[in-house]
User: Fold these one by one.
Assistant:
Number 1:
Amino acid sequence: MGSDKAVLSFGGPTLLARAQQVAQTVAAKTYIVGPREKYAAYGEVVQDIYTGCGPLAGIHAALKATTTDLNLFLSVDMPLMTSDFLSWIVGQAGDKDSLIVVPDALGGPQPLCAVYRRQVAAAAEAALKAGDYKIGHLFDKLPTRFLSEAEIRDAGFSPEIFRNVNTAEEYQSLVRAQTSPEGKGKGNNHQSQPYIEFQRVHKAFGSKVILDDVSFDVLPGETVCILGRSGVGKSVSLHQIMGFLKPDSGRIWVAYEDITDYGEEDLQRIRKKVTMVFQNGALFDSLTVGENVAFPLRERGGLEEAQIYQIVDGLLDMVGVREFRDLIPSDLSTGMKRSVAIARALAAQPDAVLYDEPTTMVDPLMAHLLGDLIKKLKQQLKLTSIVVTHDMALAKKLADRLLFLHEARAIFFGTFAEMAKSNEPIVQEFLQLDSMDFEHYFGAQRPAHEPRV
Ligand SMILES: Nc1ncnc2c1ncn2[C@@H]1O[C@H](COP(=O)(O)OP(=O)(O)OP(=O)(O)O)[C@@H](O)[C@H]1O
Ligand SMILES: [Mg+2]
């Protein structure tokens, strides 16, 4: 897959993240095939053994590295690929007589969205040694099952899912075609589906009802702010998205999966995609700032020390606290701690970040800077975000849509413009609180540690 477009984001998660997401729904383990220095931060990497020989060398190296018999290969540049299709094609590979199962659709065989049995490695190695790099020649030599376009359509899939992209424009036009009513294929359109969704969630502690029939959704790349008075259930909502708490009824979807009944193992997989920046930062006090940020990188594994240092420095630089790398969290102000917590959340390479009150207990200047930082992360990394806040100025700066919780109900969910028209008195009160104009009070003053993003 090794082209640079893998780590580019075309209006949502990167192509690589998207491919990993769909692959992980069907595979017990996923590898990235490509140069380690480029991809180590994103997952476990397999490098070509025969270099400069094209995708066949990648297939060969991965089959040598794997311990499972059935191996699914998926090119990252097929952003319309779906877990439903991958699950179907893996199901087609149950027949032991075929060593390869490959779709023959959209103009020919699709060797980079196909299932290969491990023993294909030997034939691939022989071909590479003989200087024959054409994957198609393997299909002639080994028992191969071709899944015809008709068969694929009969199973309910559009051949469009194999469409690959090279530019943001191509990607946008693909998504547009898919989201138009006539272009919609079976379950293959994550881009228009919410990344996070509450469906009629009810949550009580004892007799105290905290959330009553609350529904809202967050689209990929969107920022939703959750507003409401203290104790209304904002943090409880975030904790349910992370799976720390379960709803009493209703469904919760995260990363396109219904996580409501998930156990710890599945939740941990989801928490790799969605991370939370806690109200108190939740940093490890005994570790330096740098080691705190390195923590998710070390947990993920596969990185050399030098690479970890490089990534940590880059992230600290991004949030404007690189000079504090060797201090311990107790030496930092609350605002600085929060910046470090954001850097640590980003180190996990999430698709989505949940921020719980990112600007409380810091001075207005720092609040302003943290708001700017979150905004820049949203724009640059296209992260899907939820920001819980009392701070209307922050909400105004960040929110695409807002959810207003009051007395256990979602009394408003929509854009700022729609909010202004809301008849709810409490919503109007909150809007009136938004009268402090930062620039008016503080002019052009900026602390020395202004985040650089
Ligand atoms: N694990 C728990 N057990 C019992 N009650 C809980 C638990 N967690 C939260 N609560 C209660 O649920 C209510 C909502 O709490 P939550 O922390 O979500 O409020 P919040 O909207 O985030 O408030 P704040 O703005 O003060 O952070 C509170 O009354 C709280 O005491
Ligand atoms: Mg809270």
Number 2:
Amino acid sequence: MKGLIVGITCGLYAVRANDVVYHTKPRGVFRNQGVKPIVGDIVEFNPDEMVIEVIYPRSSALKRPLIANISQIILVFSIKEPEFSFLLAFKYLTYANMHNIKAKLVITKIDKEHDEALIKQIKETFTSINIETYFISNKTGEGLEEVKALFKDEVSCIMGQTGVGKSSLINAIDSNYERAVGEYSMALGRGKHQTKEVILLPYLGGYIADTPGFSSLELNLYKEDLAAFFPGFYSLYNKCYFANCLHLSENRCAIKEKVASGEISSLAYECYKKLSEEAIFKKERYAK
Ligand SMILES: Nc1nc2c(ncn2[C@@H]2O[C@H](COP(=O)(O)OP(=O)(O)O)[C@@H](O)[C@H]2O)c(=O)[nH]1
Ligand SMILES: [Mg+2]
Ligand SMILES: [Zn+2]
């Protein structure tokens, strides 16, 4: 029988097929081959023996969160508590680009007192690079209808730091889900109660993944990947004079020209420089 892995608990793989969930184990042969099924895998399993026999090829696979076959990433940030970060938004968007998965931005907690100029700046910055951006409140319901529609027929992975309101968003768009909601702790600077596992919830003909938040430090990007996949850079990448251009101190850099002409916002470029500074090289640049 063909099914979808929707969760993993205590070594058992929950496989959903025809609206029934089976608790299965992978065949021993996978272990010998060093292959591990992950949430999002489409598998062939034997419902009598409750064993997974085949893992179908993945259309995409992320390491953080560990999940396969998603069709879009819904990046969740809050306007406050924790503060919105352009730097982090660009980091996550680069990560999505690297995996060739489309991403959309959802900003929560707009019911909290906030700076309207910041909202305007977020809107301008991201819509100018064709990232759909939505502002919502999980508390008052503002903006939720539009965001609900984003999930139709998609396998969506909700990503974002702990405490931004990922689980609250899932609960707000469907009251059948009772995802554990944590508090944002001022003292810890993050959410207190954390979603611990990756889980796929059926929704509007597709699935939504609720995931544990992870620290941005765990999202390691290399300088080369940033240079190629930073939002807005990709189509220009081959236009720089140097093939391995990092768009920093190099001459005849197509990216820097677009920054100078205003086609790439200086805010985006400042974030790029900072992320590149923090990142390490993937390869030794010059062979000895
Ligand atoms: N005021 C307000 N609080 C929110 C909103 N969304 C989430 N919260 C609160 O933020 C905290 C963290 O939410 P949670 O859903 O657990 O975040 P997660 O870690 O991303 O899953 C909880 O105290 C929620 O009640 C919102 O839109 N407005
Ligand atoms: Mg959560
Ligand atoms: Zn360049």
Number 3:
Amino acid sequence: MKRVLITGGTSGIGLATAHRLAESQSAIVINGRNSERGGQARAAILARKPDANVRFIAADVSTQDGVSGLLAAAMDGFGGPIDVLVNSAGGEFIPTLFHENTPEIVDRVIRHWLISTIYCCLLALPHLDDGAAIVNVASDAGKVPTPGESVIGAAMAGISMFSRTLAMEAKRRKIRVNVVTPSLVRETLTHDRIMSNPFSSKLFGKALQAAHLGVVDADDVAAAIQFLVGKDAAKVTGQVISINGGISAG
Ligand SMILES: NC(=O)c1ccc[n+]([C@@H]2O[C@H](COP(=O)([O-])OP(=O)(O)OC[C@H]3O[C@@H](n4cnc5c(N)ncnc54)[C@H](OP(=O)(O)O)[C@@H]3O)[C@@H](O)[C@H]2O)c1
């Protein structure tokens, strides 16, 4: 039985990953800030797999206290070290041309994406089993310069470089660290926010036309995460994998 912690596990990619990992008798903690959404996500997992071992823990992973509290509560119930850490906490982001940003927006974006991911890895590290797997969810905005995504692109590129470097350090403990970078993922809150904004819906509407393999859904990304945390990827680390239906070659 694997012990799995998924930040941002109550919606979108994180929840789709929880559904998949619940199939293999894992003990799963899903995290988010909103308890109502957390309860609904837990119920959805149990509806599909009634004997799933799944807990919801409310915490804000953009703060050090939030991450510490999450880990303390998760470890309390696990009864052993963490085998799988998936960082998929999102936030309320709408693409914004750089000159329209404020220092406050810059701070929030860097904190909610880059700093939260680094905090989660840093504070989880002592609780990870040797041989554990980490997958950090970033975005193709960290690979492909995208108008409106300068700041979040910087955060996402930061997640990738951080993860690759951590992979080179953590391999001595046989801990693997990989990154998945979607472009736009349909049926997610992120998708709905982007497509409800006139500027970003125009931009991403064009991008989606280039997805000749089909527009990605959350389960497509979860499938890649499931591979990366599984034994078939036992020798894969430090990789940043685009999942975008062919929108770009990453
Ligand atoms: N969906 C896309 O099109 C897309 C494309 C590229 C990259 N990504 C990235 O992939 C990741 C997941 O995206 P998604 O679309 O699956 O997300 P989503 O559906 O918006 O869900 C976000 C999840 O993160 C939680 N969350 C947000 N802020 C949090 C915080 N500070 N602390 C703890 N939990 C937090 C949310 O719950 P609460 O709100 O209750 O906290 C929810 O569980 C994000 O980093 C996103 O930027 C998504």
Number 4:
Amino acid sequence: MNYNTRQKTEVLELLRKSTHALCAGDIIRQLPDVGSSSIYRILSSLEEESLVSSFVRNRRRFYSYTGSCSHHLHASCSSCGTLIHLDEEASRAITALLASRGLSINEDCMISIICPQCMKKEER
Ligand SMILES: [Zn+2]
Ligand SMILES: [Zn+2]
């Protein structure tokens, strides 16, 4: 380990508390004491450890804490980036429905949705 464990904990805590997926730039701005190259290193290490998962949107990579999330699927709002933890029942139903058609969800891949707040904004 060539980076500081405390910095790693700071990045993990920031992602854990955030209701939105954050891009590396957001994390760098919120943790100015941690250098940007450290942040990229920490993010890839957290991802390898399956504590964080990422997806790409508009050519930017966004990160979310999914460390205690092995039993359900995630959806993320394609408009505001809010991460939604689907309950286990819904996750099972979606997985089973796809499996019945010979399909499976890529573990890294979030289901892309529009959240209720953004839906309301669009209706206005
Ligand atoms: Zn979750
Ligand atoms: Zn939204």
